[in-house]
Structures are given as structure tokens and as C-alpha cells.
Amino acid sequence: MKDKLVLMIPGPTPVPESVLSALGRHPMGHRSADFSTILARVLEDLKWLHQTANDVLVLTASGTGTMEAGIVNFLSPGDRVLVCCNGKFAERWADMCDAYGLDAERIHGPWGKALDPEAVRRALEADTAKRVKAVIVTHSETSTGVINDLETLSRHIKAHGTALSIVDAVTSLGATSVPMDAWGLDVVASASQKGYMMPPGLGFIAVSPKAWKAYETAKLPKFYLDLGKYRAEAAHHTTPFTPAINLIFGLQVALQMMQEEGLDAIFARHSRHKTAIREAVRALGLSLYAGDDAAASPAVTAVTTQPVAAETLRSHLRKHFDIALAGGQDSLEGKIVRIGHLGFTNDRDILTVISALEASLAALGYNSFAPGAGISAATQNLAT
What we know:
Blueprint: E1 6-7, H1 17-23, H2 33-50, E2 55-59, H3 63-72, E3 80-85, H4 88-99, E4 103-108, H5 117-125, E5 132-138, E6 140-141, E7 146-147, H6 150-160, E8 164-168, H7 180-183, E9 187-191, E10 203-207, H8 209-215, H9 227-234, H10 245-261, H11 263-283, E11 287-288, E12 300-304, H12 310-321, E13 323-324, E14 326-327, E15 336-340, H13 347-363, H14 373-382
Parallel strand pairs: 1-13, 3-4, 3-5, 5-8, 8-9
Antiparallel strand pairs: 2-10, 6-7, 9-10, 11-12, 12-15, 14-15
């Protein structure tokens, strides 16, 4: 049915009507006093979301662009960095480091499992010469549905004394608590099309004083992504380059909605939806790709659908129920489906996707569950 598609993918995510309305406003001059007033409010609200007193800057960029800014602004060619790799996006940041001539040491962990913080601790403690300049961590690994123990990882990084923490929080910011100041994080990157309940197009990067100190001597090339320019202009509630003005309008409304709900309630809602989907999947006799509940992402759940082919299941859900799920990536292509449950989602959305999943499995000849088992499991967990 036209205009009925429901996005249950890990991004882009559904957008509230009030945000869509704000996006449709007539643009205003980005050097005007009116726009500066809006941007000033947005920058303060972003600090609230990041739980920080540090700078939070807005870029017209994707999450990848924001992560690239997080790397090039604080490092120099040949710098040694540790990249925590247990999924596709973590591997992307390692490849990015290679492209910039950094000495990137990959700390590998199995896909579908949380990274072992002890592996990072050992690598940092072995660096007695303090050559490691940064540790790059993907907090919520979208490709596998795993969340890494960022608090513990950050504690080991701080104990090193020299290394910066550079964090991909693209699918964790707004879905779970990322208290930048309390955890001592240095660089936190995220993007609009995930927990922010926005369309793609804006990137956000929060920067600690320690990272700004490193900026002073960083030698990697940068121009559009030079955060020093953004910081200088943000002090005057403006931007160094033309921003995505209408996305800023929408962001103002989205952040206001988040404040009305409250951080604790936002995080509890995402946790409840994660648990409901996981228990429903188990009740349907399917396997969770990331089986450890303690390491389950609040943003996305990866499901092994055998004996039903993953792409066949996705196609059936799209054709018959107008619901889009994400597929697997790289070595997981055709092997899993990924159910997004972050941002502008409520209990009805969770029950809808589970009921459609049940119906699709039955239609495709899979009958290893009692009718209604998934809905019953989801309902029980949503009621808690």
C-alpha cells in the first residue's frame, strides 16, 4: 500500500509528525539572529542528551563523516591506535585509519559477542612507551545487535593516561545512557537518523578538554571536518559552513520531545522493547545471533531465521505487511534479519512487527511454534 511502509530497521528510523512538520518550514538565513537563537537552544539540548558540559558540535554529515571527523581532528600520520573490532562498522573505522596512514592495531572479537575489555586492558598495559594515542570503540554494533561495555573500556583507556577514547555512539545515543562526563569519554560521535528520530543528514560530535588538547598538535589533513572551526563558530551560535537548516528545525522539535519524555524513560522504553523482541523470537523457536542478553543492543536485534531463508522472510514482510526489516551484511548477508527498535517506536510497533513476523513464518511453512507464542511473549514483557 502506498505510503504505508513501516521502518523497523536500525536506521533510518521513523520520524514523528511534529518533526516532519518542522522540516517543512520555510528556510531562514543561517547567519540570522533567529537561526542563532534556534541553534543555541539545540546545542544546549545536545549537551543534556550527552550528559556533558563539553562541546557538542553539529555537522552536516552522516555518521561515517562524523566518525571521520573524530579521527582526523585528534591524530597525526603514523599514530598508533587500537580499534576494537567485533562487527562491520568497527572494521570500517579500522579501514578508515588505514586510509589516513595511522598504525591501526585491530583487537578482534567474535561477531555476535561483546568485545572482551580485558583484551583492551592488556594491550594498553603493554604499551609502556605510551605510543597508543587513541582507542576506537563501536558502542552499539549495528551489524550484529551487540552492545560493548563502554564504561569498562573507558576505565581502561583512562588508566593508560595518554590514549583518547573515540566512540561510535551512532546507534546508542538516544537509545541507552552514554554519560560522557561520568564515564570520562573523549570523543563521542552520533547521527540524526537513529535515536534522534530524525531523517539522515546531521552528525553530532562531543569533545572533551583532553581531546581538544590533542587537537592542538594533530596533523592529519582536514578542512570541512575541522572541528576547531565548528567550535569557534558554535561559541557564537553559528556554523562555519552552510548547515542543513531545515534539519536543525526538526532537531529542535525532536530534542524537545526527548526532554518531555525524559532520559530515564527513553532508556527504559528501549530496554523494554529489546527484551520483548528477544523473548518473542525465542518463543518462535528462532535463534538470536547475539545470544547473551547482557550484551544485547537496545537498538537492533539480529535473528537467525533458519530454516526460513532470511531474504525470503524479509521480502514477505515487505510485500504483505509493508514492514521493512534489515538484512545481514558482509559474511552475514542472507543469514540473518535485523529488527530495528530505536528512536520513535512504541509498544504498538513492537507488537505489530512480532505479529507480522509470526504470520510470515507460518505462511512460509515454518510451524515450530504455537500460534500466538511470539505475541504472548512480547506482551508479557511489554507489561513489565
